Write a sequence for this structure.
């Protein structure tokens, strides 16, 4: 019998394969990690050192592990799952933690789809040259904060989250935005005082970060 905040047990344990990013950054794989932690879905990890990533990428393409040559990858038994938002949505359905309502799931998808553009822009800023960093810091961050504040104000159906599982836990869209806000803070494109100017996003960030397993992981990553 399941209890509050307890997903259905999966037949296989997901293995999250991602790059070991510096300074506690999460990236796309970190979003999947936060989703799994928040929803109490057991998983294992295989983190690839950044210096070894080009070799692994070539191997993934050559051996057909992922023809796109991207991570994260989640290995689930004989299934190889790619594309982090699709991974979270699939695992939510498999573990029985989707909202159970098509419209509430749609809200998660709506924000997760829009998030992809912000994530791509952050990657360009965080790992690009000085011009890319400056453009992202000066032109992109404030625009994206206003956009997602507006989306949360319009669509969220919970005090802090877009929508939740039957157990009251946030899902893939919320995980994506939490992880990206956190990455912006770590990479010094955003400080938490500025985030307070956006009350919906600020509440999301604080409440998601206070989820017990998420808070525990973040604390360990900071040490």
């Amino acid at each position: 019998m399941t209890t509050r905040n307890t997903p259905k047990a999966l037949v296989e344990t997901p293995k999250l394969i991602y790059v070991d990013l510096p300074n506690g950054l999460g990236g796309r794989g970190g979003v999947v990690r936060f989703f799994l932690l928040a929803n109490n879905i057991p998983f294992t990890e295989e983190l690839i050192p950044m210096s070894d990533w080009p070799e692994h990428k070539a191997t993934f393409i050559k051996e057909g592990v992922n023809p796109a040559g991207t991570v994260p990858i989640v290995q689930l038994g004989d299934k190889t799952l790619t594309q982090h938002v699709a991974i979270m949505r699939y695992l939510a359905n498999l573990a029985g933690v989707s909202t159970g309502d098509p419209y509430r799931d749609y809200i998660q998808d709506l924000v997760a789809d829009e998030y992809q553009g912000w994530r791509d822009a952050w990657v360009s800023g965080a790992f690009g040259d000085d011009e890319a960093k400056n453009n992202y810091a000066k032109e992109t961050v404030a625009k994206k904060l206003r956009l997602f504040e507006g989306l949360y104000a319009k669509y969220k159906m919970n005090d802090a989250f877009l929508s939740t599982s039957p157990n009251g836990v946030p899902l893939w869209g919320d995980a994506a935005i939490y992880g990206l806000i956190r990455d912006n803070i770590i990479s010094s494109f955003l400080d938490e005082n500025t985030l307070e100017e956006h009350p919906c996003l600020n509440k999301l960030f604080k409440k998601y970060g206070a989820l017990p397993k998420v808070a525990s992981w973040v604390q360990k990553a900071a040490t």
Notes: The two ends are 37 Å apart (CA to CA). The first strand starts at residue 15 and ends at 20. The chain has two domains: 15-95, 102-211. The mean pLDDT is 95.
